[in-house]
Amino acid sequence: MLKILGKSTSINVRKVLWTCEEVGLDYQLEQYGSGYKPTDTPEFLALNPNGQVPVLIDEGFVLWESNTICRYLVGKAGREDLLSGTPRGRARVEKWMDWQATELNSAWRYAFNALVRRNPDYTSQSDINASIADWNRCILILERELEQSGLWVTGQTFTLADIVLGLSVNRWKMTPFERPDVPAVDAWFARLGQRPAFRRHGDNGTP
């Protein structure tokens, strides 16, 4: 059985748990991270030198970086509907996965730490405003894409892009600030809400 190290409320752990359930892979979750087992021990750092979750262990094979883990799980399950085996089809999905991990995550970091986590190191109002503006700008990029693509981010088929972006959009919706109207994103998010695995792992981290 797959072993996943990481706390079930972590956004990056949840995308891995959601992927496991979408593809029907059994797993055992061991809670690591803030409030649980520490990630700064020599034993954990030997698995992931970054000291971060999630970490996947599959019969001695150790993997970190959540989006990479999701790709691995889909490949292990042979689910080319979630990540195409063709170069162009795969690139369409991975483009949005990489964008989520770079542009989108960078945009929300300051505002989320200030407004949700109430981290005392994130109190600059100008930086909060800049982060909100950049976060909304990214969501409007997704809005324009969904207006064109249809049901899902890359077209008519649900893919890994929808999993990683679904968790990020959930975080955008739960953070208290003024957001633009995004009817295409709202409709897409409602479709995600019909998926049992999303309801378990994508909706504010409530297993």
From TrEMBL:
One MF term in the entry's GO annotations: transferase activity
Family annotation (Pfam families): GST_C, GST_N
Ranges annotated as spanning the membrane: none
Underlying gene: yliJ
Alphabetized Gene3D superfamilies for the sequence: 1.20.1050.10, Glutaredoxin
The name this protein goes by in its record: Putative glutathione S-transferase YliJ
Keyword Aminoacyl-tRNA synthetase on entry: no
UniProt similarity note: Belongs to the GST superfamily.
Domain GST N-terminal: 1-81
Keywords, ordered alphabetically: Transferase
InterPro entries in UniProt: Glutathione-S-Trfase_C-like, Glutathione-S-Trfase_C_sf, Glutathione_S-Trfase, Glutathione_S-Trfase_N, GST_C, Thioredoxin-like_sf
